[in-house]
Amino acid sequence: MAEVSAEDERLPDDIDKLNLVLNRARLAAFLTEFAADKDVRDLLTLDVLGTAAGVPFTSTGVVEPAAALALRPFRIWEYAWLYKALGLSRGGIDVLDLGGPASHICLLAALAGCRVTSLDINPAFVQASQEAARSLQIAGLDARVGDMRDLSRFADGSFDAVISCSVLEHLTERDQEIALREVARVLKPGGHVALTFDFGPAAPGANEHLPPPHDPPPDAAAAVRRYQQAGLAVAGNAFTEEPIPGSLFHDDTVGYTVASLFLSKPPAAAIQVPRCEPAGSLLGDLLNRELVFNVFRNSTAINDMRLRADALDDARAQLERATASLREQESLILSLHTTAAERLSVIEKLDAAIWRLPIGK
User: Sign of torsion, CA 202 234 114 178?
Assistant: First the structure.
């Protein structure tokens, strides 16, 4: 599920700290260590069963027609890392999500018994979340249209935890700071903020999946400066690692990677680094030992079919363009034939007229 090559041996592969800068080596280490983890398996099970039942999940901001979470292993890490570190599987936590109303982490947290409020500026994603909650009979998920830069609808100290997965970078630097000041206000003393975000060189427009704005923090100092607002403190290890361009995605247009950063509002208890927990799955009765592999294999097969269908569509479009070009050329040739015939007729008439002229002696 993670493509690691010989050149990636130079990348750090330790995952024994809370705040991480993800790369291919670390992703492979996570997938290996957490393959049997209850929460990872629950996320994948939810994805497969939900999409099979027509539940409108999204891990990208676009509702997926088929189970696709296994095709984005970096997203599995994001969801599992935040979910496990905050202990959301225990339930009973008031959670504010920013920008992921129909995401797997919100739905699983609500299924586990957390009271989840999720805001998004896109009404379609909010509607998708509401449909998903109805389909899964989840009472604890409240999705609303809203802007993370204005949380005035919520009183001070309303939430035990605030989460946001790969959303902040779609705001400008100034707006990110505004959003985190609002987050600090609505967070209870002792509460935690769990963030994942694009980290490194921006790619607005160059990456087809990232329309402007795309303003990720370019370095560790910028990330801490933007997100450690209004008395929030970095939880766990210091966030000091710098992004290594091209270390996560195999795409020439994508130089950024993904990072996690946990913050707390004093006085707060320490957050533990996530560990693999095989027992205690929320959806345990639905699991089997081969789930992770089967999900990836089946999702890959679906993706291959999509690629083949896209290739056929491209070939069909090329054939139609070639046919249209041939028709244009045929029309041009017929037009040239007609013009030539008309000119030949004129020449023949002129020639005949010349022969009829009297010739002087």
Answer: negative
Contact of 255 with 246, CB cutoff 8 Å: yes
Say how far apart CA 147 and CA 290 lie, in whole Å. Answer: 41
- Percentage of the chain beyond pLDDT 70 is 89
* Measured CA angle at 271 (ends 265, 274), to 5 deg: 145
Please give the Cα distance from 168 to 176 (Å, whole number). Answer: 6
The CA distance from 76 to 104, in Å, is 9
HSE at residue 301, side-chain half, CA atoms within 13 A, is 5
Distance between CA atoms of residues 213 and 261, nearest Å: 21
Q: Is 350 exposed, middle or buried (0-12, 13-18, 19+ CB in 10 A)?
A: exposed
Among candidate residues 232, 227, 236, the one with its CA nearest the CA of residue 266: 232
**How many Cα atoms within 13 Å fall on the side-chain side of residue 67?**
23
> How far is Cα 148 from Cα 167, in angstroms, rounded to an integer?
10
Let me know: does 110 contact 133? Beta carbons within 8 Å: yes
CB atoms within 10 A of CB 184: 20
What is the C-alpha separation between 148 and 268, in angstroms, rounded?
Answer: 23
Residue 37 has pLDDT above 50, yes or no: yes
Q: In the predicted model, is pLDDT for residue 361 greater than 50?
A: no
- Residue 295 has a pLDDT of 54
- pLDDT, residue 179, reads 97
Quick check: helix, strand or coil at residue 3? coil
pLDDT at 147 over 70: yes
Q: Above 50 in pLDDT, residue 32?
A: yes
Q: Which domains does the chain carry?
A: 8-287 (3.40.50.150)
**Closest Cα partner for 151 from 174, 121, 115?**
121
Residue 141 token pair: 């998920």
Query: What is the reported pLDDT for 64?
Result: 72
